[in-house]
Every structure is written in C-alpha cells, then in structure tokens.
C-alpha cells in the first residue's frame, strides 16, 4: 500500500495546515477516526478498496455478493510530511455514490514511515476526528473499526506504537476497534498495541530483483519469516494479492501479477504455521480488472476456510 498514483501522478489534497481543510469535491471539513479492544478477528471474507473514488461497478458488486463479502477495508487518505515535516492528509477518497447498507467499511489510513521518526502532538486526535467527519458527511454508518497502515521499522517503532496508543484512546470514545497492517519483516518485532493485525502477504520482494523473483509474491521471500508466525502475540488476518504491478525500467514496461500457484502455496505454508489464518482472509484489492484477472476457482481456493 502507499501513495495513490494514477498515470504516474501523485494525487495531493490542497490543505490548510491549521485545520487540514480539504478543497476537493465533495467539500468536507477536515478532521480524523479510531477503536476499542477485543481479542478476536472476525471470521469472514474481506477485501481492500484502494482507489481515490468510491464507486462500484456491476462486476465489483457481483464479486462482493458471490463471495459473501460484507466488509471492505477502504483507504480514506494517506498521511505524508509537508515541506516543514508536519504530517498532512493526502489523496483523500471522494464518495461519489452511496455505500451499500449491507457493507461494513473499515476506514484505512496509510501513514508514511518518515512521519513516525518523531512524535506529533495531536495527530491521533486529528486522524480520528477526520475520519468520523468523513463518515458523517458521506453517510457511512456501518463503521466499527479503523485500520492504520505503516511500514514501520526499528527506527520508527517506538513512536509508531505510542501513536497507536493515542489512536486507540481516541477510537474508544467512538466504540471502535483498531487494527494495523503487519508486514513480514515486522513479525520479528514486538506486537503493536492494537486489537489485531492484517498480515500483508504481498509486495514481498525487492522491485530491483524482479528478474530473479516476482516482487509481488514469492514463497522464497516469505519462508524466512514463518518461524515468527506461530508465536506472534497478536490476532492476525491474512491478505493476499490479486493486482497488477507495473514499472518502467529504461523505457521498458515490466508487469507482474501474483501467480495462483504462489498464492496457494504461501497460503498453505502460513496456515500450517498458524491455522487461524484460514478464517479471516482479505484480497488486495477490489477492482474490475483484478476480478477479471483470475477465474472463479482461484478466488474460491483463496477464500475457502
């Protein structure tokens, strides 16, 4: 996950630092969201939604119905440092159609790791308030939790966990749970102070080594981290890739997709180490082209419990 790019352009909000006022359509007041503490992960199929406009076409709606998906982890905006180093919202989603009443949205916010190199007073409150305001403005009623996505490292871990503690305090005010993404390299670190994590089983390889391995998913990149999985002290869900990865190298466009065989082999390997991972499965991400990229048998094999 990360900064949203469309045809190579990074989408940025026009903001006023003091109030985080968004000047986009629809016009909304800037504020930010949060959660309570439970020990379980819901037993269900889910997907990520990682676009800057909320609009579902007939293929996407049919996919949600076919695989009994009622929970969508929806990227609301990114948080990136401005020129002065202060964290600011970026690429906020626009709700151009109403969210179906039978869908539970999990507002998800991507925060760049360098935002966590120092502590920022009031950031957690702004984030929680902003998402709450977005929900109210866009009549998104079925929200029971939020998720924070950050590729934190040893350098940023302490500040990030402190930030999560503050977010959790804010989310408790709204009776919401809190989750975070967990990348493979983060399994070797102490668990974050959240209700559960989503283990990202994609973008596992180095982009510059694409000729050797698929950078989206290669079981050889996953294997070294499996030793941490069984004893990792946090409830986990698992997320698998169904997207196209593109990169221009010396004028040549290189494309990768996750091979079905790799997805299923990795799925079997992680579930062998931690059987509970078969119960809560997400796909990244919901999109017409991604749905058409794989056949029904593939989705059934990934989602099967």
Write the layout of secondary structure elements.
Blueprint: E1 5-6, E2 9-10, E3 45-49, E4 53-54, H1 58-66, E5 71-81, E6 87-90, E7 94-95, E8 104-111, H2 123-137, E9 145-149, H3 154-172, E10 177-182, E11 196-200, H4 219-222, E12 236-241, E13 244-249, E14 252-257, H5 260-273, E15 281-284, H6 288-293, H7 296-303
Parallel strand pairs: 3-5, 3-15, 4-7, 5-8, 8-9, 9-10, 10-11, 11-12, 12-15
Antiparallel strand pairs: 1-2, 5-6, 13-14
Helix pairs in contact: 2-3
Key attributes of the depicted protein:
single chain; alpha/beta; eight-stranded parallel beta barrel; two-stranded antiparallel sheet; disordered N terminus
Residue-averaged pLDDT: 88
Q: By helix and strand content, what is the structural category?
A: alpha/beta
DSSP, total strands: 15
Cα Rg: 18 Å
Largest sheet: 8 strands, parallel, barrel
Shape: globular
Please provide the ordered H/E string of secondary-structure elements.
EEEEHEEEEHEHEEHEEEHEHH
Strand content: 15-25%
Low-confidence stretches: 3-11, 14-18, 21-39
Summed up, the helix count is 7
Helix content: 10-25%
> Distance between termini?
25 Å
**Major beta sheet, strand line-up:** 3-5-8-9-10-11-12-15
């Amino acid at each position: 996950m990360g900064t949203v790019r469309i045809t190579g352009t990074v989408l940025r909000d026009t903001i006023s630092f003091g109030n985080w006022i968004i000047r986009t359509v629809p016009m909304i007041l800037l504020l930010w969201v949060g959660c309570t503490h439970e020990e379980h992960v819901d037993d269900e199929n889910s997907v990520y939604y990682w676009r800057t406009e909320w609009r579902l076409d007939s293929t996407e709606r049919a996919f949600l119905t076919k695989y009994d998906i009622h929970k969508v982890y929806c990227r609301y905006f990114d948080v990136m440092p401005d020129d002065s180093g202060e964290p600011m919202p970026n690429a906020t989603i626009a709700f151009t159609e109403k969210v179906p009443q039978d869908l539970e949205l999990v507002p998800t916010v991507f925060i760049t790791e360098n935002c966590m190199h120092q502590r920022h007073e009031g950031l957690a409150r702004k984030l929680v308030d902003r998402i709450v305001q977005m929900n109210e403005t866009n009549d998104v009623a079925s929200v029971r939790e939020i998720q924070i996505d950050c590729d934190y490292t040893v350098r940023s871990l302490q500040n990030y966990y402190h930030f999560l503690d503050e977010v959790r305090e804010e989310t408790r005010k709204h009776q919401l749970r809190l989750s975070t993404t967990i990348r493979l390299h983060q399994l070797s670190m102490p668990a974050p102070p959240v209700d559960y994590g989503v283990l990202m089983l994609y973008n596992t390889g180095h982009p510059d080594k694409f000729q050797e391995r698929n950078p989206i998913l290669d079981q050889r990149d996953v294997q070294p981290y499996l030793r941490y999985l069984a004893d990792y002290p946090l409830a986990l869900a698992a997320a698998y890739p169904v997207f196209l990865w593109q990169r221009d190298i010396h004028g040549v466009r290189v494309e990768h997709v996750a091979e079905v065989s790799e997805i299923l082999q990795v799925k079997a390997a992680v579930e062998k180490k931690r059987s509970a991972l078969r119960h809560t499965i997400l796909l990244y991400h919901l999109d017409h082209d991604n749905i058409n990229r794989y056949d029904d048998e593939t989705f059934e094999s990934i989602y099967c419990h």
